[in-house]
Design a protein that fits this description.
The protein is of the alpha+beta class and 104 residues long. It is 55% helix and 23% strand. It has a 3-stranded antiparallel β-sheet with strand order 1-2-3. Helix 1 (6-43) packs parallel to helix 2. The model has no long low-confidence stretch (mean pLDDT 83).
């Protein structure tokens, strides 16, 4: 069952096909692997949060940030912001890995 329906589902399927063409299956595999990592960390109560925003001061420049929550503590991932979501998520996954290795 797909979460997406109608025109959105069609556009998403085209997006995936385009990504496989432009990025190759290896890169697409990394994106899917990130989702599996996030699900794994959820299962051990290490929660990854990421969000996007628009920096009005920088002329509507998009930015991304992320953090990791473990045992009700928010662990900062970076002192700054990221230019794209994948970089923010990758930094959060690295932090979650560190937290897991220190606490399990």
């Amino acid at each position: 069952m797909s979460l997406l329906t109608g025109k959105c589902e069609i556009a998403f399927n085209k997006y995936i096909q385009d990504q496989m063409y432009y990025l190759g299956t290896e890169k697409l595999g990394v994106l899917f692997l990130s989702a599996l990592y996030i699900e794994f960390f959820d299962s051990v109560q290490i929660y990854i949060q990421d969000w996007g925003f628009v920096d009005y001061v920088e002329g509507m420049k998009p930015g991304f940030d992320s953090s990791v929550v473990y045992k009700s503590e928010n662990h900062s991932v970076s002192d700054g912001f990221f230019d794209n979501r994948q970089s923010a998520i990758t930094a959060a996954l690295e932090k979650a890995n560190e937290i897991y290795n220190q606490n399990h």
